[in-house]
């Protein structure tokens, strides 16, 4: 009998709310699979408090010093978005695999630059898109692969959340330079990733956005129509102005409608399966479609899949092309909303200003486009 594998030695960059409330508990729940060896944070007091709470021995204010001293196997990036690219690149160059919070990067250019630092057999970077890892999504993905439900035809993807004015007082929020965009970039990207992980690549998008009620450089609401390679058409709304918050996805297939309504995470009870009228024995069909087990969507579920991929030496899901889809769609939405018209996926090349920045290279023009008002008179 072979000896068990040694634990993955993990370091966290950032020791604030997302690290303390989500990532450190998820890492602890892996049992003997992971050992958290270090934290990195310029705020020494916050880092010391977090390290003491979770029993983390290594404490560093400099990322490169930590990488040189500790040689971690895995780096978990819990920083504001503007620090993602450089942190991920430095970690990959040091030989560590990376799990980075969303959004993956501030632009497609940054994402592709990071990918250039991955090895042919690793280390790899992957990104926090935990909603695709619950049992409901996994079961639906299997049905799509097997063709059980028929072709996807129509979809809805809504992220209707509420953030008050105080939320944007945090200096990096709602700014092109530090967050990259608004709810399309930092909030709805979770539901959009889940949708894309199920329906695959998109072909074109037509979007509108506005800055309606919050003091932000970016939008606070966006709407879009998306067409997919499969022929499906999806309507999307991303809002931070919605007092009754909900996250809602609906997929109309040939043989069924599948719906998911939750807020920040789901289990099987949040899914609804409705057979089409022509389906015989609807109750039996629904019973066959539902998952056999109930695994909630969570960072824990995604982390387990990431550790499995590390053991096999394989690229994890939510990395590479699979992790790029959502950022690519967001890029197309901004280009469509700011310049007007429909954007094709194949046009988002390095020759486009939007490949390099979500505002297209001119943040002032982008802000003007998002806040413009039109008046009309009747005659």
How does this model look, in words?
It is globular, with a radius of gyration of 21 Å. The chain has an 8-stranded mixed beta sheet. The longest helix is centred in the C-terminal third of the chain and has 20 residues, at 320-339. The chain has 2 domains: 8-130, NAD(P)-binding Rossmann-like Domain (Rossmann fold, 3-Layer(aba) Sandwich); 133-373, Dihydrodipicolinate Reductase, domain 2 (2-Layer Sandwich). A hairpin with a 2-residue loop joins β11 (241-253) and β12. The protein has helices spanning 17-28, 44-54, 63-70, 84-93, 108-115, 135-146, 176-179, 183-186, 189-199, 282-289, 299-312, 320-339, 353-356, 363-371, and strands at 8-13, 34-40, 58-60, 74-77, 97-100, 125-127, 152-162, 202-210, 221-228, 233-239, 241-253, 256-262, 271-275, 342-344. The protein is of the alpha/beta class. Mean pLDDT is 95; it is low at 373-379. The protein starts with 7 loop residues before the first strand and ends in an 8-residue tail after the last helix.
The number of distinct β-strands equals 14
Radius of gyration: 21 Å
Helix content: 25-40%
Average pLDDT metric: 95
Uncertain regions spanning at least 5 consecutive residues:
373-379
Terminal-residue CA separation: 87 Å
Strand order of the largest sheet: 13-12-11-7-10-9-8-14
Just name the CATH architecture of the largest domain.
2-Layer Sandwich
């Amino acid at each position: 009998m072979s000896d068990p594998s040694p634990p993955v030695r993990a370091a966290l960059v950032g020791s604030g709310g997302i690290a303390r409330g989500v990532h450190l508990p998820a890492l602890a729940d892996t049992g003997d699979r992971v050992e958290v060896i270090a934290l990195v944070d310029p705020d020494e007091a916050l880092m010391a408090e977090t390290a003491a709470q979770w029993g983390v021995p290594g404490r560093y204010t400099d990322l490169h010093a930590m990488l040189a001293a500790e040689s971690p196997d895995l780096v978990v990036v819990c920083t504001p978005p503007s620090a993602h690219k450089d942190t991920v690149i430095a970690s990959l160059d040091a030989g560590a695999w990376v799990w980075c919070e969303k959004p993956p990067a501030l632009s497609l250019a940054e994402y592709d630059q990071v990918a250039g630092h991955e090895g042919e057999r690793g280390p790899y970077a992957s990104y926090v898109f935990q909603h695709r890892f619950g049992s409901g999504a996994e079961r639906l993905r299997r049905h799509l692969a097997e063709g059980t439900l028929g072709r996807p035809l129509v979809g809805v993807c809504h992220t209707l959340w509420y953030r008050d004015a105080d939320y944007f007082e945090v200096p990096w929020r709602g700014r092109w330079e530090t967050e990259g965009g608004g709810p399309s970039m930092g909030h709805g990207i979770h539901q959009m990733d889940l949708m894309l992980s199920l329906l695959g690549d998109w072909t074109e998008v037509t979007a509108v956005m506005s800055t309606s009620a919050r003091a932000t450089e970016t939008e606070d609401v966006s709407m879009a129509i998306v067409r997919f390679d499969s022929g499906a058409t999806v309507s999307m709304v991303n809002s931070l102005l919605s007092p009754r918050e909900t996250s809602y996805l609906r997929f109309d297939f040939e043989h069924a409608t599948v719906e998911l309504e939750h807020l920040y995470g789901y289990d099987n009870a949040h899914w609804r399966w409705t057979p089409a009228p022509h389906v015989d024995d609807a109750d039996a069909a629904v019973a066959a479609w539902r998952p056999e087990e109930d695994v909630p969507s969570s960072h824990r579920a995604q982390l387990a899949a990431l550790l499995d991929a590390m053991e096999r030496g394989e690229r994890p899901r939510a990395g590479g092309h699979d992790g790029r889809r959502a950022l690519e769609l967001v890029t197309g939405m901004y280009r469509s909303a700011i310049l007007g018209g429909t954007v094709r996926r194949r046009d988002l090349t390095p020759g486009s200003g939007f490949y390099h920045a979500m505002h297209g290279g001119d943040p002032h023009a982008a802000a003007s486009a998002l806040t413009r008002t039109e008046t009309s008179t009747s005659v």
